[in-house]
Amino acid sequence: MTYKKMRYIGFSLITFVSLVLPWITVDGKHFFLLSFDKKQLQLFFTTFNMSELWPMLFLLIILFLGIFFVTTLGGRVWCGWACPQTIFRTIYRDLLQTKIFGLYKSVDNKQKPIAKGKWIQKILAFLIFNIFAIAAAADLLWYFIPPEDFFVYILDPLENRITFVVWFIFTTLIMASAVFIKENFCTYVCPYVRIQSTMLDNDTVQTIYDPVRGGVIYGSDKQKITGNKDEGECTRCDACVRVCPTHIDIRAGMQLECINCLECSDACEKVMKRLSLPSLVRWTSPNSVQNNEKVKVIRFRTVAYSIAITIALVALLSMSTTKKSMILNINRGTELFHLSKDKANIENTYKFKFENIDSKEHMFYFEVLNPEITIKTPSEPFKLRVGEVKSKVVILSTDINSSLKTQNGKPLPVTIRAFATDSKEKIYIEKEAAFIYPKADSIR
Ligand code: SF4
Ligand code: SF4
User: Fold this and answer.
1) 186 and 214 in one domain?
2) Looking at ligand 2, which residue's alpha carbon is closest to its atom 1?
């Protein structure tokens, strides 16, 4: 199978997954949703509110380690095989402009300028791609505004102007990069190209022309050597140059502009096939070409990155699965303790802050696990909507004769168990607080 076919399969899979993922929910929670609207992050079908955004830190760590790992292993493989800009360019230039509207003669020659005239075809290609861009921008938005809300919002444009503005900006950026900036985006705009060169080593898999077999085409002054056509297997047909979307000649050695798309390898394969020889442009490492050995995948850097990514992933997953569906914060009142009006009870006042971070609304209440302590107020469960925060003044009470002597001014550790009344075993949280007793002789 050619690299081109493999890339097209990869592009289709990535597009399919990115379109479908925002629609998949478990108990109303998404795989990934960063909702500024609801002020929450949903990750691995678990909801986190804005005060517990630590998963974002883990995600960023995994993202950066992943970039380092992939680049060390396969160079700019992301650029040629998964980057949305490459996918958009393939749709616009190769599918619409070349295959459908014949504005370029062939996908195998990306150096020839676009056909003159043919304005209707040009406008049609632009308009059709605009529809793709609108859909792609909406898909990107679904990771911030879930599709179930998005389609409600767009029915009321006046009330949801920000959604439309962001949608318009995303669409414009996609159109600008795919239609006007083209591959200059990969060479001059994208920051990844600047940092990736620091991560490559001689075992990194890249698109490499084999000068040992093909012959040296460029001298050390980067100038093309003329003549000596019989020195190697390269026929100097320039098929690899014509097909290159970033307009470089891979025979001049590794260049920052190369996006690892391997179209040059496919082009050379076609030429070399006629001579019963393998392609002169291969996806391999410099060491493997020079020493004629296998690519070294397992090496210190790749192993270190894999271990670090695995640790971060396991930590993120285990923390996500043990995550609570409610939050409770307890603060004491200003008074240490007070006596009830009939002087029969010692009372402590607290402020309990409850937050429902589950995906459904629930009735909440709490109990005190110390048998000698009772709840004076609040006396009834209360409702919390999804994401709602409610503060409650709580008065705990105990009989003045129960433990006054034994405690005698010492605070008693009490355990509070707050829970959703309809899901007591699943949605609960336990917190410690202190119940302050007065000194026994101060009461007499
Ligand atoms: S040199 Fe080859 S792999 Fe690199 S961008 Fe050009 S065609 Fe793609
Ligand atoms: S396609 Fe192959 S044979 Fe033709 S110029 Fe390129 S490297 Fe040489």
Assistant:
1) no
2) 268
Residues in Cβ contact with 134 at an 8 Å cutoff, skipping those fewer than 6 apart: 167, 171
For residues 300 and 287, give the distance between their C-alpha atoms in angstroms, rounded to a whole number.
Answer: 16
Angle in degrees, CA 18, 123, 141, rounded to 5: 25
Q: What is the pLDDT along the chain (444 residues), one digit of tens a residue?
A: 899 999 999 999 999 999 999 999 887 888 888 888 777 788 778 777 766 667 778 888 888 898 889 888 888 888 889 899 999 999 999 999 999 998 988 888 888 888 888 899 999 999 999 999 999 999 999 999 999 889 999 898 888 899 999 999 999 999 999 999 988 888 888 888 777 777 888 889 889 998 888 888 787 777 777 765 557 888 889 999 999 999 999 988 888 888 899 999 999 999 999 989 999 999 988 888 888 788 888 888 889 999 999 998 888 887 776 667 788 899 988 888 888 888 888 999 999 999 887 778 899 999 999 988 999 999 899 999 887 889 999 999 998 877 766 777 788 899 999 999 988 888 889 999 999 988 877 765
Ligand 1: centre distance to CA 375 (Å)? 72
- For residue 208, report the distance from its CA to the centre of ligand 1, in Å: 9
Asked if residue 424 and residue 359 are part of one domain, the reply reads: yes
Q: According to DSSP H, which parts of 154-285 are helical?
A: 161-175, 184, 192-196, 211-214, 239-242, 263-273
Q: And the tokens for 416?
A: 């509070």
Determine, yes or no, domain membership for 307: no
Give domain status of residue 300, yes or no: no
Domain carrying residue 275 = 206-291
Q: Quick check: is 315 in a domain?
A: no
Q: In this structure, is residue 252 part of a structural domain? A: yes
What total number of domains does the chain contain?
A: 3
The number of the ligand nearest the C-alpha atom of 209 reads 2
Ligand 1 center–CA 348 separation, angstroms: 73
Query: Are 267 and 403 members of one domain?
Result: no
